[in-house]
Specification:
SAM-dependent_MTases_sf; about 280 residues; six-stranded mixed sheet; about 35% helix; 10 helices; four-stranded antiparallel sheet; 10 strands; alpha/beta; Methyltransferase domain protein; Rossmann fold; methyltransferase activity; methyltransferase; transferase
Length: about 280
């Protein structure tokens, strides 16, 4: 069997996973890029009778965190601050005041790829971002009227998507060769240096929806393949960028998004009311 990322022969690493209480699953690892894939994964049709699993009780809390992190990241990504991160941590209050005078609004188009119910898009628009939604498998509930139909997006988001992909290379081609974004911001939990045992919660066998897993080596392989620089904020939040980022500075701000978000959000003007007016107008057009 071949790796779904780099087409290298994979080896069996883990047996005995029981998906949806009755399907046997095995985990294979690629020796070249470290991608983990679950086989045979022949339960997916049943697993996706509902695209969002009933066990996903963290969906709102997760999106609250993501909207803060994305807001901070996009606002400070070009911020030129020639101060070592260690000094930023010491003088955090001063940094918040000083930087608030120099933050610039991010004005370019954003697409949430695999956007689920549209909750993140709605929340980003509530901040003031021109964000749009796209998802072939889930009904848009919260971002209706803002479906992405363009091919021109500076930034593509993809949160809690990569571990679901049955054909990841096809989707990466779609993103990086089709859209060619300058930024790809995404989440997936890295599994680390060793293949986790079958008790690892991120396998999520009770839902049957997580079938591919990545570590730092995997993400570097993908970034290199498509000509991007790779930066991780932590083990679950990652960035591919066309230009090299000041990773220490960005990591400092994003990891403190709760602290900086109220200040940074003031740079933006919410689209909540203007979107409401657009939707009212669309009813009568």
């Amino acid at each position: 069997m071949k790796c779904k990322i780099c087409n290298t022969e994979v080896s069996l690493k883990l047996k005995g996973l029981i998906y949806l209480s009755r399907f046997d699953g095995e985990v294979y690892q690629c020796p070249n890029c470290d991608y983990l894939q679950v086989f045979p994964a022949d339960w997916l049709e049943e697993a996706y009778t509902e695209s969002i699993a009933i066990t996903d009780t963290g969906i709102v809390a997760r999106n609250l965190l993501f909207v803060k992190r994305i807001t901070i990241l996009l606002t400070v990504i070009d911020f030129q601050l020639r101060i070592p991160a260690v000094f930023l941590r010491v003088f955090k209050s001063f940094v918040r005041y000083f930087c608030s005078k120099r933050f610039n609004k991010y004005r370019l188009n954003i697409l949430d790829f695999g956007g689920g119910y549209g909750l993140l898009v709605r929340m980003l628009r509530d901040v003031g971002f021109n964000a749009e939604w796209r998802d072939l498998y889930t009904k848009n509930l919260f971002a209706r009227g803002f479906e992405g139909k363009s091919k021109n997006y500076d930034c593509i988001l993809s949160f809690e998507v990569l571990e679901h992909l049955e054909n990841p290379l096809r989707e990466f081609d779609n993103i990086f060769l089709g859209f060619r974004p300058n930024l790809f911001i995404f989440s997936t939990l890295l599994y680390g240096e060793e293949v986790p045992d079958k008790n690892w919660w991120y396998y999520s066998p009770e839902t049957g929806q997580h079938i591919g897993f990545y570590n730092e080596r995997t993400l570097r392989f993908i970034a290199d393949k498509y000509g991007y620089f790779y930066t991780s904020i932590d083990s679950g939040f990652h960035i591919f960028s066309k230009k090299r980022l000041h990773s220490d500075i960005i990591r400092f701000f994003v990891l403190r998004s709760d602290y900086f978000f109220p200040t940074v959000a003031k740079v933006y003007r919410s689209l909540t009311l203007t979107d409401n007016e657009k939707m009212i107008k669309s009813i009568f057009d």
